[in-house]
Amino acid sequence: MAEEINMLYEKVKELKNKNPEKPCAVLMAEAINTIYHLELDQNSINLMYGLSFGLGYGGMCGCYMACLSLSNIVLNSFENINVRKRQLEIIKLLNDKMGDFNCSILRQKYAVNGNCIYILEECSKIFENFIYTKGAKI
């Protein structure tokens, strides 16, 4: 079980090492797409560029938004009540661990030389554990 839960974490690290300049939202989407076999095309992944750097002004972390956006696909659930509840659950888990959801604040606290690998790694662990507890299988 522990190995399964670390697959997303390992994929995020691998992608960040290969593409250090790629935004966190895109890296997270690529990793989730690969690990959960979502078969999203490149145009769908490229939509995540708009979420990068907190929507370009330091707002909500793009990594968080990628997790929120793709959780419904991974869990195959699109009913409004489930979407809203799930988003609140993920945000709470991320905030409890990281202390905020604002990109500017997270980068100030955790980025090293502009590198958000710690944020990506922690988000991937939280997302993967959340998905696993909801019953989705890799």
Helix and strand layout, with pairings?
Blueprint: H1 2-5, H2 7-18, H3 24-35, H4 42-46, H5 52-58, H6 62-75, H7 80-98, H8 103-110, H9 117-133
Q: Can you describe this structure?
A:
The model has no long low-confidence stretch (mean pLDDT 85). 71% of the residues lie in helices and 0% in strands. The relative contact order is 0.18. The chain has nine helices and no strands. It is an all-alpha fold.
Strand residue content = under 5%
Outline? globular
Measured distance between first and last alpha carbons: 11 Å
Radius of gyration: 14 Å
Summarize the helix and strand pattern as letters. HHHHHHHHH
Total helices: the number is 9
List low-confidence stretches. Answer: none
> Kindly state the mean pLDDT as a whole number?
85
As a percent range, the share of helical residues equals over 70%
Largest sheet: none
Task: Report the strand count.
Answer: 0
Structural class: mainly alpha
In short:
This protein is an all-alpha fold and 138 residues long. It is built from 9 helices and no strands.
List keywords for this structure.
138 residues, mainly alpha, 71% helix, 0% strand, globular
